[in-house]
Amino acid sequence: MVQVNDNYRKLPQNYLFSEVARRVRSYREANPDADIISLGIGDVTRPLCNSVIEAMSAAVAEMGRAETFRGYAPDRGYDFLIDAIRTNDYLSRGIRVDSDEIFVNDGAKSALGHFCDILGGNNKVGICDPVYPVYIDTNVMDGRGGVLTSDGKWSDIVYIDSPAENGFIPQIPLQVPDIIYICSPNNPTGTALNGSQLKAWVDYAAEHGSLILFDAAYEAFVRTPGVPRSIYEIEGARNVAVEFRSFSKTAGFTGVRCGYTVVPKELKGRDSEGEVSLNALWNRHQSTKFNGTAYIVQRAAEAVYSPQGKKETALTVDYYMRNADTIRKGLEFAGFTVYGGVDAPYIWLKTPCGLSSWEFFDRLLDECRVVGTPGVGFGPSGEGYFRLTAFGDYDNVCRAVERIKEWKI
Amino acid sequence: MVQVNDNYRKLPQNYLFSEVARRVRSYREANPDADIISLGIGDVTRPLCNSVIEAMSAAVAEMGRAETFRGYAPDRGYDFLIDAIRTNDYLSRGIRVDSDEIFVNDGAKSALGHFCDILGGNNKVGICDPVYPVYIDTNVMDGRGGVLTSDGKWSDIVYIDSPAENGFIPQIPLQVPDIIYICSPNNPTGTALNGSQLKAWVDYAAEHGSLILFDAAYEAFVRTPGVPRSIYEIEGARNVAVEFRSFSKTAGFTGVRCGYTVVPKELKGRDSEGEVSLNALWNRHQSTKFNGTAYIVQRAAEAVYSPQGKKETALTVDYYMRNADTIRKGLEFAGFTVYGGVDAPYIWLKTPCGLSSWEFFDRLLDECRVVGTPGVGFGPSGEGYFRLTAFGDYDNVCRAVERIKEWKI
Question: What sequence ranges are listed for the domain Aminotransferase class I/classII large (chains A, B) (predicted)?
């Protein structure tokens, strides 16, 4: 009989969001008339903007005519999109990124999930706690997790503490990781690192020869002056960091699927014979295991960078940030201790009365008919915290906040 | 410094199609006015059919309205597409496939490239020779290849001979593989296994506890009665086989990106504690490392199964098969020994005059301005063979064939 990857049996049965969905489904079955408002999964709700719709409609029409039909896209993406990314996200901000350092893909999750395939199994992985659970899960699948211990931590992972008293800023760990995941603005805490905080990590990685995997999926939500939107705003970052970007939250592409990864040519890793380029390895990975992003999708992404597209997507981001502000202020008014929601679409709250994250989940669902995400799902340090997202409809957000304000917990 | 996956250094520098593209580019630079006709890379050229265009246009419009906007798709795919696949590709042919056995994805290459992530590193892999090079490359990346020896073979791979004298039918190997890749209709030879030939493999896998990874990307081109389009037409296949399907060639989706994988619940593998379901493992892989296929793309795929969509896509397949017939007959007339082109869009020819595959490539390009694909790129047994594809424009195909007929090689 075929042997399976033995690491999979180490994974807990349920992926966080599947478990949330299961409990909501079960509540809905028991309470079919309940008016449930979801501030749970980080999925967008606003429609695609006009510029994107027009670009996609035109691209669909092109695919229906022999003269303009397009087959396989280039593995790394079409030049028109790579140029738009390079010009708008980097050059215009004074950041150097070369065209052959940009890899267009079907979203940050696939890229983050597979990037470590090109890295060795014995690298020590450092992961902020709490954070997006895909980093841990994919490394466990690849054999870098060790075993899950009774405190909810994986034995081989270096947990990077991000304590509440320091505003959830990740602190330099005692043990040096070879690979460091940083998500800023952070999912779930909403914390965004400022320039000097991020520079400390770039310098640390340079000093220790570590590689930073920088997840910038929420950069569009940064409002505070001086908070970097790209790690390459930091001097020296080209030597130590890969950057993952996505149109999912920036332009509402969760159902369209487009993102990109930047792998600077300076980045090296070591194999048994010497130093090799990570850019070359990732290119090999993508050309072998990926067949390009749909033409229609790439035209949609390009439209996000048109003058009109920029205005329209900014309005949508503003809409969500008004939600974030409403949730944050409403919860503060109700007496909760609240973080995030300023440079991120996530609001992170301390559960009151010593409730565990899942206890709070169940009570919030049962008593307010509001769905959120238990903080413990983002790592053991998330226990006793809870995440609400700003991606809902404004009226629903207001209704949910009113219910929470009136809640006698 | 971060360690890289040491297996990558074992891979030859150039992926087959990149090398073909490089040589064509270099020829074009030296001969800017040359009228080059490509019968090389297996990419479609006919536009998407009307049913698909209409479905996509409607879906794009839906994404632009708040009431009908869709965010993240379900990891496994929308029910509307899963139902259409199940009904049309399986139930209507008397084959049982359950809804939760179908995983919609962004194309067969991603699924084939990553499926072995859920399998152990020590499985012995059996691969037909010649065949689509992604099977070998992905297994080498995962450490199952061993080393590349001077005969062009990987030391740990079981090569499944498919000799010309047996019509390129894969022959049972001496050593038993744990994982067996079968591509039928085959890329590049065009050979399609009939029911009894495929049954021999299903029985062999059942007897030895092997897992078959069945690549059916070209099933739409099967014309010969009795040639299975799905491995599940064979009794017992649910116990031994995963099937990979794609809309790329069936409906011209190479630039749209949609396919699906069928993982029957009967399929088991062994981990250190016992038997586990491959369906559950693949579900875990996809929910962790993939974020669903675009809504618009899934609506496009659904339209392929509408009565009108079926008619329209069948016409396109007919168009390509007329090309295949033209190439096959033309080359036979010119005195070449030719295979395939009957149940597949690929024509496989023996290079004349003892030319190597790459020598033939260079001469065909230089003397006929026709691009094809060197057979040796599909495995060591492909040396001395050459692949032409039927995906071109009919007039160009005729012109290419005329040039080859007049060619004094």
Answer: 35-404
Residue A214 three-state SS: strand
Chain B positions touching A295 (Cβ under 8 A) are 255-256
Question: How many other CB atoms sit within 10 Å of the CB of residue B380?
Answer: 15
State how far the Cα of B408 lies from the Cα of B396, in Å rounded to an integer: 20
State the ipTM, two decimals.
0.96
- Give one DSSP letter per residue of A295-361, joined into a string: HHHHHHHHHTTSHHHHHHHHHHHHHHHHHHHHHHHHHHHTT--EEE-SSSSEEEEEPGGG--HHHHH
User: Are residues A294 and B257, on separate chains, in Cβ contact within 8 Å?
Assistant: yes
Burial of residue B323 (CB within 10 Å: 0-12, 13-18, 19+) is buried
Q: Which of B103, B82, B135, B107 is nearest to B262 (CA)?
A: B103
Amino acid (one-letter) located at B267: L
Helices then strands (H, E): number in chain A? 11, 15
- For A3-58, give the DSSP string: BB-GGGGGS-S--HHHHHHHHHHHHHHH-TT---EE--S----SPPPHHHHHHHHH
Q: Classify residue A139 by its DSSP letter.
A: H
Give all strands (DSSP E) within A151-279, no chain letters.
157-161, 179-183, 211-215, 241-246, 259-262, 268-271, 274-277
Contact B361, B372 (CB under 8 A): yes
State the CB neighbour count (10 A cutoff) for residue A354.
7
* Cα distance between residue A316 and residue A310, in whole Å: 10
A17-28: per-residue pLDDT in tens?
888 989 999 999
For the segment B67-114, what is each residue's pLDDT rounded down to a tens digit?
999 999 999 999 999 999 999 999 999 999 999 999 999 999 999 999
Q: Rounded distance, CA A138 to CA A115, Å?
A: 10
> Helices marked H in B188-338 — which ranges?
195-208, 278-289, 295-304, 307-333
Contact between A37 and A400 under an 8 Å Cβ cutoff? The reply is: yes
**pLDDT tens-place string over residues A317-343:** 999 999 999 999 999 999 999 999 999
- Give the pairing type, strands B370-371 and B157-161: unpaired
When CB atoms are compared, the residue of B47, B71, B120 closest to A44 is B71
CA–CA separation, A350 and B89 (whole Å):
51
Question: pTM of the predicted model, to two decimals?
Answer: 0.96
Distances (CA, A) of B49 to A66, B227, B253, B325: 10, 26, 10, 22
Closest by Cβ to A120, choosing from B6, B57, B70: B6
Residue A13 has what pLDDT?
Answer: 76
Which residue carries 């270096």 as its tokens? Answer: A158
User: Three-state SS string across B169-180, please?
Assistant: CCCCCCCCCCEE
Q: What is the strand order of the sheet A179-183 is part of?
A: A102-105, A259-262, A241-246, A211-215, A179-183, A125-129, A157-161
The tokens for B334 are: 């010119």
Of B4, B120, B289, the CB nearest to A6: B120
Determine, for residues A255 and B292 on separate chains, whether the beta-carbon distance falls below 8 Å.
yes
pLDDT tens digits, B177-189: 999 999 999 999 9
Whether A43 sits inside 8 A of B117 (CB atoms) is: no
- A117–B141 C-beta distance less than 8 A: yes
Spatial distance between the Cα atoms of B354 and A36, rounded to a whole number of angstroms = 73
Comparing alpha-carbon positions, the chain A residue that sits nearest to B9 is A271
A360 contacts A374 by C-beta, under 8 angstroms: yes
What stretch of H or E contains A112? helix A108-115
8 Å CB contact of B70 and A41: no
Cross-chain Cβ contact A43/B8 below 8 Å = no
Which among A8, A46, A292 has CB closest to B118? A8
